[in-house]
């Protein structure tokens, strides 16, 4: 998959990451794309127009008119197969979300009929600000593609989320999205995510701290790879964003089990990332349980193990992936789970790793496969980890086909 022969507008806005854009232009051209570059005035504080025009082999447009000539933004918008706004600053994102049109980038964006890719770049606090979150959701709802930010060192010296995706990753993202033959096109995937709540009485439950972020990122990554995804999601405020992800909300382990056993026979891939309760109260009290005595004992019974059940009915064309969250003897326990539940791969999380597990935006995972493979990945954002998991699924399915 490549961007060969594609006409691409690169729009650079005012963020320190603009210094990486000559490299991005170079990679696009090397891959066979034709590139025109736009830059806002603020962008030119961070990157010189001469560097950009030299690598693009075309003048950089930074204004709707240069005094004597009007730069036809409508024509440019129609010329392109794709527009990439990279880096997209918080300010520019706000303009795109609200339809403002006060520079060449916003004018071309509003005129463009081609797919638009946005690679945000900003400091973590700006990235986490509710207005940025809302703007991002808004531009996504207009059908634009968001290229996930990376986790790492930021211009402020802080470490966190908000770095522009690396130029190589932007090119890879474009190549995938612009090519019709997405690797999972026509396939169906089932993903579980989030916690489960097991009701004790009308106001209490047994639950866990899972936010569902990892499973949701996997659902989005499978959608981006072309699969039609059903996400069975426990109680959380997090949401999937890819248009090919259809979400079914559930609350308990039993509801998760029922949905999954119904959907799995029609699925090609299943990734069970939910943190499912292993036990539920034997009885749910009809009225609120009153306080009485100094202690209390709860009688619990085992929930259905969905991964285990799906493992039993798995067909040769299906790929089944489970998760394991371990605190000791991680590898040994992970491999045991792989065998016992008849999964094709187990994504192992260790709570011993800093930055991994519930609630974090990062994860440190090891991918265990049936051939005894244990691939340890570095600390990644959950979105990057999700892409790595999807790539491993592709490899597993490819190996299966050619075996
Ligand atoms: N899982 C499931 N249904 C359950 C419990 C777990 O589908 N009732 C799935 C999880 O989604 C995960 C995998 O099984 O993909 C492993 O879950 P985990 O809780 O780590 O393992 P358990 O088998 O429950 O074993 P233990 O809690 O003893 O480690």
Q: In the CATH hierarchy, what is the architecture of the largest domain at level 2?
A: 3-Layer(aba) Sandwich
Tally of alpha and pi helices? 13
| Strand residues, percent | 15-25%
Unreliable parts: none
Question: Short summary of the structure?
Answer:
This protein has 403 residues and is of the alpha/beta class. The chain has helices spanning 21-30, 49-56, 73-79, 90-98, 104-111, 124-128, 130-141, 167-178, 213-224, 253-263, 306-313, 330-340, 382-402, and strands spanning 7-12, 34-39, 82-88, 116-120, 145-146, 150-153, 159-163, 188-193, 198-201, 204-206, 228-233, 245-249, 269-272, 279-281, 300-302, 319-326, 345-350, 362-363, 365-369, 374-376, 380-381. The mean pLDDT is 92.
Please give a structural write-up:
The protein has 403 residues and is an alpha/beta fold. It has 2 domains: 7-179, 3-Layer(aba) Sandwich (Rossmann fold); 188-287 and 296-402, 3-Layer(aba) Sandwich (Rossmann fold). Helices cover 33% and strands 24% of the residues. It has helices at residues 21-30, 49-56, 73-79, 90-98, 104-111, 124-128, 130-141, 167-178, 213-224, 253-263, 306-313, 330-340, 382-402, and strands at residues 7-12, 34-39, 82-88, 116-120, 145-146, 150-153, 159-163, 188-193, 198-201, 204-206, 228-233, 245-249, 269-272, 279-281, 300-302, 319-326, 345-350, 362-363, 365-369, 374-376, 380-381. It has an 8-stranded mixed β-sheet, sandwiched between helices. Strands 2-1-3-4-5 form a 5-stranded parallel β-sheet, with helices on both faces. Strands 6-7 form a two-stranded antiparallel sheet. Helix 12 links the parallel strand 16 (319-326) and strand 17 (345-350). It is elongated. The model has no long low-confidence stretch (mean pLDDT 92). Cytidine-5'-triphosphate (CTP) binds next to helix 11 and strand 16. Cytidine-5'-triphosphate binds at residues 192, 253, 272, 274, 276, 278, 303, 305-307, 322-325, 337.
